[in-house]
Amino acid sequence: MCADAKQWLQERSIPFSFREIFVHPLSQDELRALGKKTAAGIHDLYAPKGARKVGLPEDGRTLTPDQIVGLQVGNPDLIRYPLFEFNDQLLFGFHQATRDALIALSGEHEWPTK
């Protein structure tokens, strides 16, 4: 999924930086800062699919923000990705709605499609 996102961004000349969170995990401070950019805070960063994989509840609302951050630092599977930080907005996943938002945020409206 991340490789597809990188290729898509490159094809459209949308500048980006990439961080492999499984190699260079996010710190607690970084996770908290990202959580402040979402409607539901750190709960929006909680990945139900990753939680299911490691035997945690899929509904992150059963955990406190501090519990989620502590778990995510040690297990990046619990962070929704790909994660796009654009100015003060955070977008998750690589579905059509995310692509449309990235195009709108980048200021371009007519991109070639594949």
Structural overview:
A hairpin with a 2-residue loop joins strand 1 and strand 2. The protein has a two-stranded antiparallel ribbon. It has helices spanning 2-11, 28-35, 48-54, 65-74, 96-106, and strands at residues 83-86, 89-92. The chain has 5 helices and 2 strands; from the N terminus they run H-H-H-H-E-E-H. Helices cover 40% and strands 7% of the residues. The two termini are 16 Å apart. The protein is mainly alpha-helical and 114 residues long. Residues 109-114 have low confidence and may be disordered.
Keyword list:
mainly alpha; 114 residues; disordered C terminus; 5 helices
**Stretches where pLDDT falls below 50 for ≥5 residues?**
109-114
What shape does the CA trace take?
globular
User: Which percent band covers the strand fraction?
Assistant: 5-15%
Strand line-up across the major sheet: 1-2
Write the layout of secondary structure elements.
Blueprint: H1 2-11, H2 28-35, H3 48-54, H4 65-74, E1 83-86, E2 89-92, H5 96-106
Antiparallel strand pairs: 1-2
What's the short version?
This protein is mainly alpha-helical.
